Amino acid sequence: MFVCRSCVRRTLSPTAAESRLLVQPLQGTSTQRSFSGDSYTSPSLAPGKEKVAPTPPVDKSDPTAVAPRRAKDLQWIVKKHLQYLKDPLLIAEHILATLAKGKFDEALEVTRAASRDTAVSVSWNHLIDYQMKNQRLHAAVKLYNEMKKRAQLPDARTYTIIFRGCAESVHPKLAVSEAVRIYSTLMANERIKPTTIHLNAVLEVCARAGDLDSMFTIAQTANNALRSPNSQTYTIILNGLRHKPDVSRREGLSEEQVEMNNSHALEKARAIWDDIILRWKNAKLVIDEELVCAMGRLLMGGDRKDKDSILELLEQTMALPRLDKGAIAGSVNTTTAAPKAPHPRSPTASSAIHPKPSRNTLSLIMMSLQGTKKTSLAPKYWEHLTKVHSVEPDKDNYNKYLKVLQVGRASEKMANTIVAMPPAFFSPMTFRTGFSTCIHDELSPHAFQNACRIFDVMITKTRYPDPLAMRLFLQSARGNVRHHYEKHPKDEQAAKLSLGRQIVAGVDRLWQPFRILMSSFSYPEQPAKSPQGAWQMAERDVAEAMATARRIIAAMDKVTFEGMADEEICKILKSRRAILNRLVERYYEKEQNMAEKLGKALPVKERGGLDEDLVEVETGRRW
């Protein structure tokens, strides 16, 4: 019998019902398990092709839907961590690592869960410290209270973290109230007693806030047992007294009230220093350099006698010799200075250990000499501390030393110091200070030569010269005229020619460095996206350079118009003057065009540069 192929395939293939029967046993297991669920729908009861609806995705924009899921995930993470973290030390290390990743919520939940059956005070300390470092004072105190509620006993480290965090808080008044309150509860604690570390930490909180009443109230809790005051204790108190006038100014008090507060602070400091010296002589206290300098900087806020007594203070505590040989020890404000320490050869000298001076002491001495105008002693003390005591000066030491030399108009010492300075310490103000000193050193016939030495250092040790410093150098060439007329008292023309040679030498030294300065504007380190942007980036610097160019032109005119040089030199000066004049004219034309494009109004007086600042420097009003 012949049958078509399609009929044979239809006969051999199973029917739809048979297909369902063949597939059904494969789903039997899952079907039987899903009968207990409410969401199961029997395939035989489902009409048509209806299927079980899938679980809708969570809308992450809906916090009410995301929060439960996050909470479940967090609980699962905490549970997994605690399966392997049983030792309190391991838990603390895990908390510290988790906080380093910024996962505070996870660290907090792990600590809470571990607190049920494990002592994890160190982990709580990490949490409190994390909140304190992030300036969350309320949150840190809240953690401290929760720690106690969960039967986790705070240790000495807990209170140290809280007090030090309060000292660094940006809300000083709130920090003082919290620190004093917690310190009071700690004083009444029978299990833990505050130590000198806690005392100093709370004193630091009060001192930084300027709350002297609270500071001295806390200081009265010191004793000779656990809270014996050390050098840091007295340093904090003296620094708090020193900063009180600044706090008074911020609070808007009048200058009279500020001066009165400063006088009271000095009186209290003297009384405290008497106690310091007494304890030092009795070997109950070790004085360090920080404490001595804290007292010295407090005296810097007083009058000239107080500033002068700093040298006696250093002789007393550090055994530094008095290099002002004409002064008699004890003749300068003996009421301000502290009582005498035992002589090094006396029987009690072994109990008085003298601290070794370093950079802090060197800066204090320079400040004292500048305040008392004893500038001639500055090189002596500088050499004594750097050579005898092997003090390696830093940038701040050099800057303070230069200021003292500037006050004393010691141009030669200034040049020697700048030549010996490390190039890393150079700044534009370094050379401005040096040239200003040479300008005012009118009595020295070598002032301009010293300025040339400083100028050579600026050219060779810096990338680009400072325009204002260049103008000051030119002013030193034009301003030091006295020795020329003293050298030729009866021949005015010879004096003018001598001065002219000096001005020409200064102009000639400026010529090539000025060209280097101008080339730096054509090739900036950070190229701009447009000509207008390039102009705005270099506008102030170019204005300074143009002010320098105008000063050079004025110096050339002085030499040529007053006949202070021969014709050959005047010819060279005129050609250079023409170049500078065209440069200045192009600058003002470009300035006008850029101002119109940017919609910027030019000032009434188109001066360009800091001429007003230069006048203040030359007259000494800024220094």
UniProtKB/TrEMBL annotation:
Residues 28-66, 334-356 are annotated as: Disordered. It comes from Lasiosphaeria hispida. Regulates mitochondrial small subunit maturation by controlling 15S rRNA 5'-end processing. Localizes to the 5' precursor of the 15S rRNA in a position that is subsequently occupied by mS47 in the mature yeast mtSSU. Uses structure and sequence-specific RNA recognition, binding to a single-stranded region of the precursor and specifically recognizing bases -6 to -1. The exchange of Ccm1 for mS47 is coupled to the irreversible removal of precursor rRNA that is accompanied by conformational changes of the mitoribosomal proteins uS5m and mS26. Keywords: Repeat. PANTHER family: OS03G0856100 PROTEIN, OS12G0638900 PROTEIN. Belongs to the CCM1 family. Residues 28-44 have a biased composition (Polar residues). NCBIfam families: PPR. PPR repeats lie at residues 120-154. Gene3D superfamilies: Tetratricopeptide repeat domain. InterPro entries: PPR_rpt, TPR-like_helical_dom_sf. Signal peptide: none annotated. Binds to mitochondrial small subunit 15S rRNA. This is Pentatricopeptide repeat protein.
